[in-house]
Design brief:
It contains eight helices and nine strands.
Length: about 270
């Protein structure tokens, strides 16, 4: 049995809802083999990020080389990269090993607003990592920062931001619209030629911790399995929508995690894609 192999390069969420924990759960649900390279350890729960401990860049490099020397990766995703030194190391190694199906989730803030990336590291992302990406997946605040826009409140502004970010070199940009004040959740994919708007009803469930990590991991799993970008995004969005709608009760007293197994249990009636 040949199983697609997907690598996450991201931070650890001690609460289990985001970061490498969410990524590995997602990879499993998509029938892929998940691997992880740890960039930082966070002390967090559903209420707050209490502390962030970045890994040494040479420790990140050692993990990457160990995985890619032996196992390889059909696709990869990056999440929290902590600082510019780690960004540059990761970009150089992914380029060296020829990992071309790369999803870059430019994680800059925690759900509660804790900064997770400084200005120098954001510059390294744009210069070193974005040109390697198959898809970059910023949310609205991240897209504003990357595109130099004061606000994004409409699909037209989402496309404007996507076009601006596209100029940094990725093959496609997915601007996630979860932060928009609207009755539906709309994400916009732009690949330099075509714009696709993915719409779905907005869920009333407030427990959305790990949504961005999960979506980018699902896209990477789809790419690893041979899907084109549009199909990978569409299936990933369906997966995340089901995980949000299902919800998990009683996980902490703050913003709780998604239900990563919702579609497998058939709670949303959509089945595996």
């Amino acid at each position: 049995m040949v199983v697609p192999k997907v690598l996450t390069v991201a931070g650890s969420d001690s609460g289990g809802g985001a970061g490498i924990q969410a990524d590995l759960k997602t990879f499993q649900e998509f029938g892929t083999y998940g691997m992880s390279v740890l960039t930082a350890v966070t002390a967090q729960n559903t209420l707050e990020v209490r502390a962030v401990y970045p890994m040494a860049a040479d420790a990140v490099e050692a993990q990457l080389r160990a995985v890619l020397d032996d196992i390889g990766a059909d696709a990869a995703k990056t999440g929290m990269l902590a600082n510019g030194e780690i960004v540059r190391h990761v970009a150089g190694l992914l380029d060296e090993y020829g990992v071309r199906q790369l999803v870059v989730d430019p994680v800059m803030l925690s759900k509660g607003g804790t900064p997770l990336l400084n200005e120098e590291a954001i510059g390294a992302l744009k210069e070193k990592l974005f040109p390697l990406a198959r898809i970059v997946t910023p949310n609205i605040p991240e897209a504003c920062k990357l595109a130099g826009m004061d606000e994004i409140a409409t699909p037209a502004q989402m496309e404007e931001a996507a076009r601006a970010i596209y100029r940094f070199g990725p093959q496609a940009v997915l601007v996630k619209g979860g932060h928009l004040r609207a009755d539906e959740a709309a994400d916009l994919l732009y690949d330099g030629k075509k714009t696709v708007l993915f719409r779905s009803p907005r869920s009333a469930n407030p427990h959305t911790h790990g949504t961005g990590c999960t979506l980018s991991a699902a896209i990477a799993a789809g790419l690893a399995g041979g899907k084109d970008a549009e199909t990978a995004v569409r299936d990933a969005k369906r997966y995340v929508d089901a995980a949000i709608r299902s919800g998990l009760a009683g996980i902490g007293s703050g913003i709780g995690p998604l239900d990563h197994a919702a579609w497998r249990r058939g709670k949303e009636g959509i089945g595996a894609v």
